[in-house]
Every structure is written in structure tokens, then in C-alpha cells.
Amino acid sequence: MYRLAMAPLAIALAFALVAPAAAQTAATDDATSLPAIQVNASRLDIPPFDVPAALSVIHVDPGNAGQPGVNFSEVLAGVPGILARDRQNYAQDEQISIRGFGSRTTFGVRSIRVFMDGIPATLPDGQGQVSQFNLDSADRVEVLRGPFSVLYGNAAGGVIQLYTADGTPTPQTTLGVYGGSYDSFRFMADTRGTVGPVDYNIAASEFLSDGYRAHSRVRRESDNAKFGIDLGQQRKLTVVLNRINQPDTQDPLGLTRAQMEQDSRQATAVAATYNTRKSAQQNQVGLIYEQTLSASDQWRAMAYYGYRSIIQYLSIPTFVQKNPLQSGGVVAPATNYGGADAHWTHRGQLGGGMYEAVLGASGDYQIQRRTGYENFVGSTLGVKGALRRNEHDNVNNVAEYAQFYWHFVPQWALLLGLRHDTVRFSEHDFYITPSNPDDSGHVNYSATTPVVGLQYRATDALRVYASYGRGFETPSYNELGYRSDGQAGLAFDLKPARSNNVELGAKWQATKGVEFDAALFRADTRNELAVANNTNGRATYRNAGHTRREGVELSATGELAPDWRLSAGYTHLRARFQDGYLACTGSPCTVPTTPVAAGSRIPGVPQDYGSLRLEHGSGTGWREGITLTGVGSVVVNDFGTDRAAGYALVDVDAGYTFALGETTRLDLSARISNLADRRYVGSVIVNDGNGRYFEPGPDRSYMLGARLTF
Fold first, then answer.
1. pTM of structure
2. Which three-class secondary structure string do you get for 257-293?
3. Mind listing the pLDDT tens digit for each residue in 496-530?
4. Greatest Cα-to-Cα distance within the chain, rounded to the nearest angstrom
5. CA 672/CA 704 separation, integer angstroms
6. Which of 9, 50, 117, 576 has a CA-to-CA distance to 174 between 20 and 30 Å?
7. Residues near 319 by beta carbon (within 8 Å), at least 6 away in sequence
8. What are phi and psi of 441, to 5 degrees?
9. What are 457's strand-pairing partners?
């Protein structure tokens, strides 16, 4: 039986045990000092310890934990606030939320801004993805939470940024192969170095798996290249190329509770009937130009362009598609997108204190041709049939922003920010018949989002801060794409969600090598965008009144003793609908009639979650690690009539590094995930109209790896 595990409590107890131990090491000088890290998430040239915001910086090296580097969740152990849920469904990408924002998404990443090397991986409409992240070439990940996220604009409930490592002075190449449970294999190659004024980092990989569940086979090719070109006179040009190809990835769909308890590895019957699957391809190029004008001034300009094509076969029954206003069971959007950003940074002295000002503007666009087809031809199901939708969906987002950081007296610092966004959606309908009228239209959204933060430096090792910000989130085209009343056209009646965010936090460097962070937060949102209905793989949305997300985050990171490293994070989160409202129980839904009581839990959001990573070893020889993950229960629909139980997972790994001469090493690794062989729900499909809410996580699984670096 699925049962609630007291994992979040275990994580909290781990903090209670670790904190005193870490404090005791302050009397010794054995621990390594925390490294100085240049971060970009705040757009300011100050250490993360001095940023008055919840900001986590994670060094990326999944191979050290025996992980293959496939999923973004592999690098998030010990990071509070963020939760990456394992769907075991590569047709839908990982389900990522930050402080409860993004938990409702049925695929991809919503309510969170995603960047790769400073280039948006979130489209102007607010829909993003992390499948293009290449962990083989990555240097670090930055996760920004709380009020200052709103400085990144639309749908910034949090910000995730991945940065590719620069080329090394001495060229090096790494070749790797991984193999494990469910016929999973991954092959990777990464080469980095410097040739004259150019440093480079080029990575390529292929991942193959039959999947934990039936009908979940995947093949993913991922390539990433970064070239840094020194132009002289303090000028630099960075070129970033990225490609992902994922053909015919099978989609097993969710399971009902009865199906899950019968066999958690099965796929829903209609998944095979309609051969539900998804093919995706994306190519992207970005240019970043940086120039230092003087000791006080520098500027940065970025431009990017990409093309993304998707074709997805859904399980919508044929009798439903005979409705003349139905847009078919095959979705095929093709998107051209791009944009530019430029900002100027000035540093100086004001009133005896240092200040830093940033002034910038950006513009982004997406031009999407969205077509829909029947998923049958005659009696043959799961094939592309007659055209049922043909439209051009365009989005333009223009923004201006400013930031001002002032360390006005030795113990106090102030951070101010202001951003204005104008987002325009337009639809041009080319599928017009006597029974399907012209649905062309447009809608404009705009918002001005201020933010303010104040930091008090109590001692050299302690920072206390408070911050406030206002955010907004427009519907994406995936939310506008279908009306909840079953009629044709886009859901232009949806309103943008607007939020007020407050945070109170503290950062304490307990020793030279260990840092503890804590944050209290609250986000009040009006016109929350919620799932109205989710049937046969297609979701519709509605505004659901006021919501509140509030809680606490705790984290501890650093080196406890020589060769002993810790990363631990715990989050308690209370996410509730503040207002009662009427919701749908069927599809199509023309008039919502079922009440949702005020105070009901927001579905898909656990009240407690956390993780802890403890590892030992460095350099050559043995290394060992253990990862604990705990997630509390979640309700699966607005009415709270069913829920997925909480769970605790234990993963262990071990590796050995051989020195093969002075310039070559061989890393061997072994990993066991879900050591206790727990049955659990990896993620949920919120408000699924068929009651297929559950996506089970895998049983005990194994992974072996080998990497040769020379």
C-alpha cells in the first residue's frame, strides 16, 4: 500500500543534528573556506552571501554522485524551496515548482523563468522547459526565490539559471557511458579548452531507455557548445549553440488509484490504443557581447534565435472530435522565437558608501503556427488525420528594468528594482468553415513590478534581510489554447495573475566552510490561474480568485570536515485558496457548479518537502554518498477528494577514481536509487477529468557508470 512517510520530519531532524556539529568545527581550521562565486541571478557584482534574497548556487557534477546527467533534478539535492517531481514520462518533461509556483503544469515549466547562459529558455508567453539543459558542460545552477524573482518579468515565481563552464587553459576531454535499470543507457562526450583568444566547451550526449512504465520509451539527443572570444580592450563575445532532438517519445498517461494499486508499471489502455507520443526538436543560437568601458561602467548585450517544433498524439476519443468545434487529437505547434536584451551597469560612491546601478531593456517574440489534426484515419487510430485547426499565434513582450544597490553605511545595504512589461497575444485563424467561425483576436497585458530589499550586516558572518515585490503572470498559449466551455477559439477571457511577495531571511556562515540560510515567505495572488479540466491529455484553465503561499525554508551547505560535504534543504509550505469558488466536474464545462471551499489546499503542492546529500571523498580513490529525499502528501484536485501519499527515498552511491598517468583518470561509479524499494507517486496530474491523477515513481533501480578524462 502507498503510505505517508515522515520524511520531511526526518529532514528537519537532520538539521537539528547537523547544526551543532557544524558549529563545533568553528574551533578548528580544518574546514575549507566557502569559495567566492560570481553569480548572475541578481544582475549584480556582489557575492550571493550579500544578496538580500534567497539564492542558492549549486556546482554541477552529477557524475560524482553516480548519476547519468539526464534530469535536472539530479543537481537539486539540498536546495530548499524548489521541487522537481519525477514523472517517469519524458514526453512531458519534469514537473518543477518553486514555493508552490508551477505545481499545476501538465508539461514543461510554468510560473518560473528559466535561463541558460543568460539566454531565456522560457518563451515570451511564460512556457519554458529544462530538457535542453546539458549537465555535461555545465558549471553551476543558480536558483533565485522570492520577491526579487519578479525583476525577470512575466511568470517569475522563481528563477532558474544554468551556466556552461568556460573552456579550461589546458584542453581536456571526457568520454562517459552509463547503463542501468529499465534498459537505460547514456553516452556522453565533452571537450573543453583554449585555442588562442578562444575558449570552448562542447558536449554531446544520447539517452535511451525503455522506461519504468509500459509505453514510456524515450530517445533524447542533446548537444551544447559555448565559445568565449576575447576581442581585446576588455571586450568579449560569447557564442552559445544548443540542440535537442527527442523523437517519438511514448506517453503512458496517468493512472487511476485502482490501476496504480493493481500494477504501478502499467500504462493506461488508451495510451496503446491511440499510441500517445510526442516528438520534439529545438535548435537555438545566442550571442552575448560584454564590454568594460571604465572602472565604473560596463555594458552587456544579448541576442538569440531559436526554432522549436512539436507533434503530440493525444488520446482524445474519435466521437469527441466529431464536434465541429473540436480541434483534433494531434497537436503540432511550430515556433520561431527570439529576442534581445541590453543593460548598462555603473558603479560608484554615494554618501560614503558603494553603489551599483543597472539600467536595461529587453524585447522577445514568438511566432507560432499551431495546427491540429484528427488522431485517426477511418478505423485506424493514433495516426495524423484530417486538419481541424490552423492558426498563427504570436506573442511580443517588451520590458524596461532598473536596479539600484547601495551599501550606504557599513552595516546596512539597500536594493531597489523596478520593471515594466507589455505582453501582446494575437491569434490569426486560418481554419474557417460554416460550422467553425473565424476566431481571430488579440489581448494585451501590462504590469509594473517594483521590488525593495533591505539588508543588515550584524557581523561579518551574519546577514539579515527583508524584501518585498509585486509579480504578475499572463496565461501562456497552452492555457489560452482551449476554452473550458468547449467552444472554438482562444480563452481570451483569462486574466493575468498578480501577486504580492514578502520575505524575511538570514544567512549565517557558521564556520569557514559551512553556511546556514533561513527564510520566511508569503505570496498572495489574485486571479490565480488554475486547471479547470484536464481530460485525455488536454487541459483548460480558469481564474480561481485569491490564493496564499506561505512558509519557511532552511538550508545548510558546505564542508563539515576534510573530504566531508553536506547539502541539506527543508521547506514547509502552506498553499491555500483564500476564496471559495465554483469549479467544473465534467468536460466540456459551460457553467461551474461544484463549490471549492475557502481554505482548501492548492492541488499538487506538498506541505513539507526536503532533501539531504552527504558525501565523502575527493581526488583519486574512493568516494561515497547518500541522498535522502522526502515529500509530503498532495491533494490531486481542487476538491481535495483524493491525494497522493507522502514518501521518503534513500539513494546511495559509490565510486573509485584511478589515476592513469599524470593527465588521465578513470572514474567508475555505482548507484542504487530508492534503496528501500518504496512504492510512491512521483508526480500528479492536477484535476484530471478521467481520475488518472497518478504518475508512479520507479522501484529500486541501479545505474553503473564509467568516465575517462584525459
1. 0.90
2. HHHHHHCCCCCCHHHHHCCCEEEEEEEEEEEEEEEEC
3. 999 999 999 999 998 888 999 999 999 999 998 87
4. 82
5. 9
6. 117
7. none
8. 180, 180
9. 463
